[in-house]
Every structure is written in C-alpha cells, then in structure tokens.
Request: fold
Amino acid sequence: MPLPNRDGLTTSGAAPRRKRRPSSPFRLTAELTTPQFVGIAVLVFAGLLAAWWAVTASGLVAPLFLPGPGQVFGRLVTLALNGQLWEDAGISIYRIMVGFLIATGLAVPIGVLIGSYRVWEAAIEPVVDFIRYMPVVAFVPLTILWVGTEDPQKFLIIWIGTFFQQVLLIMDNVKRVPWDFIDLGRTLEMPERKILTRIVVPSALPGIWDSLRISLGWAWTWLVLAELVAATSGLGYRIVTAQRFFQTDTIIGYILVLGCFGLISDQAMKAVSRRLFRYAEARR
Amino acid sequence: MNVEQPKLQISGLSKEFRRRGQAVLALDGVDLAIAENEFVSLVGTSGCGKSTLLMIVAGLQDFDTGEVLVDGQPVEGPGRDRGVVFQSYTLLPWLTAQQNVEFALRAAGSKGAELRERAREHLALVGLDRFADAFPNQLSGGMKQRVALARALSYRPKMLLMDEPFGALDALTRHHMQELLTRIWERHRLTVLFITHDVEEAVYLSDRVAIMSNAPGRIKETIPIPLARPRRYDITTSAEFLELHRRVLKSIREESIRAAEMDEALAEG
Reply:
C-alpha cells in the first residue's frame, strides 16, 4: 500500500514523481525576492492607510477623535511650512542625541569591563540588573526635583531608560567572544590590556552596535515621555499642547513623525553596520 | 646543549577537575617526551583528556602535580615558543588572511616591510598567497585552517601544538591538509604534538603515536612509525602502513572496551 509522504501525497510506483516540491511562500524557510518582500510591506502599509481613510471618510468616527489622512497630512504640511515642525523636531533630536551619547559613552566601557572580568561583573551587574527593573516613569518626578525641567532632565530620563539596558546587552555581547580568541592572544604573549582592545572589543563590536541600535529605539520612547510631562518645547510638548486645543490632527501627525524618525534612525544604524562589518556578512 | 635532552618533557603530570562537586581525575601520571624535530601524535577515545594535556603544554590550563619542561625549562603559562593551532579556526573575522598572520607577527615584535614579507611568505607556504586579501568568511574550512597554520608557523615557535586541527573538515579536505602538513614538516622540520582521534591520520603524519588511556588519562603505549619519508598518500595502502594502523587501532579498542565496561559497572552500581 502506498504511504503518504511528507507533503501528504501518496506515491506509488506508477505515478510520475515530482522532481521539485511545490513552492508555497508559507512553507518554513521559504525565500522571497527583494521586490516581493518590499511589495508585501508596501501593500500592508497601503492597506492600513486605506482602512484609516475608509473609517474616517464614511463618518463612522468623529474627526475630533480620528481625523482623516488628508487632514493629518495637510496639518503636517502647514506645520512644516511655517517651521514649527522643524523647530520641535530639532530640539527633540538634539535631546535624544545628547542623552543617548552620554548613555552609550558610559555603557560601552562598563559593559566591556563587566563582560570581561568576573570581579567587575560581581560588583556592578547585580546593581544594574536591580535598577533596570525600576520603572523609568517613576523617576520622572524625582528627576524634576533634582535637575528641574530644562534639557538636563530630558538627558537624565533618556540616560536612566537606556544606560542600564545597554550595559547588560553589551556585557552579553562581550561574553560571546570565543574563549579560543582570548587563548590565541595569550599564546602570542599579548598583554591583558591588548587582548582586551585588539581581540575582545573588535570581536564584540558588531554585537555591541546591534545592541546600541535596539536601545536607540527605546530612547525615543523615553524622550517623548520626558517631554510630555514637563517641557516647553519638543515633539512631546507639542503633542500635549495640541491635546489641550483638541488638535487631534497634530497629535496623530506628530506620532507618525516620531515613528518615521525611529524607523530612519534604525535603518541608518543598520546601514552603517553593513558598511563597518562587511566582513561578518553571512554567505549563504 | 645536551643532545639527549628532549624538546618537550612531560613527567608525572596529573590534573583534577571538579564536576558536580565531585573530583574527577582527568590526567594521572602522564609521562611523555618528544625529541627535537619529532612529530608525535596523541590518540585516544574522546574525553580521555588528550586536549586537556595539550592545553596544559600550551600553558593555557594549569595542572596539579608533575612537570612540563620545554628545553629543560618549566612551562609557566602560554608563550610564543609554542605555537597553537586550535580545532576551531580562531581566525579573527575582521582581519584578512594576510592581516591575521600579520597580527601574530606584530605581537611577536615584527614590523614594517619585514612583517608584510613574512606574512606573505607563510601564506605562500600553505598555498594561499592568492587569498591574502580574503576575509575568513570567504574561505572554506580547510583554507581557514591553513591560514591558522601559517599564522602559528610565522613567528617561528620551537614547537607546534595542534588540537584536532582537521577534526571539523570533510574527509577529502582532511587528506589534502594531511599531505600539506607532511610536506611542510618534511621540508622545515619542527617539533610537533598533534592531537587526533583519527588513527589513519596519526599513523600517516607521525614519527611516533602515543595512545592515551581513559579515566584517568595516561600514556598507555607509544608505537614508533618507521615508515619512510618523504611520505606520499599512497603509502596508506601499503602492508606496512596497514599493520601499524591495525596495531594502534587494537590498542585504542582495548581501551574503549575497558572504558565501556567501567561505565556499565558504574551504571549498575
């Protein structure tokens, strides 16, 4: 009796045997061409936009709660032309850059240190792990009390939200450096410091870069949080003000702008990574 | 210098591991001497401690009792007098083949034009001068291990320690690598300690094969391999080769049977 094969089809001696399996895009590990991939992504975006338009144009939802795409984009264009959007975005980008760079500048050396030396790990990792679980939101009132409502408070919130996560991610990146690499340095009689700078750090760098990219995404969230609570400028501040005047179109427009900035910064980090770590690209 | 003095002298070496709170004797009273420019393979069943022994000689692991002497001097940690070829290729992925060799030469104090020249020379020695600018992920497993060999040879260590260097390669590539290594060794003569579990490989490459016993690991027997040199691969089908192969295999088999019986006895409690 013929038995069903893995595709659930029965084969018998007489039936012509299929040389190639049917290629369904829903099979595990099925590949897509780049145009196919981009096509699907664009289609989903277009679908969401169409649904948004349909819901608002049909009058199903009042414009006060959800204005249509046309109104939102119109509002964004107005704000872009009168310079408001660029002013708000400029301030926010400045804050995220400073906050993120301070966090990164501290997290990289500390992460490398505790990833390489058990002593430092014992001293620092449990503390960092503990603070990491404290909700960043709860620090907002405290930071205002400490440093006021100016830019340093924004830097501080971004720092609290990203630094502790970064340290642990980077520690993990460093721990993944193969022991044989370190042993190689030892057989070459390289001093410890050089093993760290010439072998451990370059070896962990692609992973560290990836961790930074992920934490940059979080930094955007903390920035807006800080600006929502206490600020006199920035994208988050504009969103709160817009709410007071029921300018739902501005709120939604700014949320979309924030999404775009997040996407752009992420793609930029990825592009840099592809250039810097070309050697690590997998060949399949 | 005393002509009789071996290049590498291991005597009464023991090493204990702690596994789940219990002490396990990995090596117990290992004695092994390797003469200058001798090629010695160490074979044994997996887990018998042969890699541990190599890591101890390399200075990358410490030991409890006994002595490891290189040229009569006790080994204290790793050093450039002993070049190591690891089983994992350990090529630094962000450096090209050429730069990987240069990395070692630079650590050894080489500089400038001489540095580049010597790196190029050693890549040519392993037949990879055309791939000098390739990154490790563009090289096959065999090529990577050739670069690792060139790197270990480049700074002229007194001896080469090779830890199952061809273990991860396919059979065909492994044969090529064995031929390459034999050719290089026959031309340049170097003291080599070579770890493998491939009996054919051990007999083909070596002047002597040392068989390691299991749990605890010690040298059970050393079998001299008096096959003529230069050796070409067709020697592996000669009656003399097959007889030596059979002898080594028999010795290991006795060992693995004894180990299996011991495991059974332990399991039955």
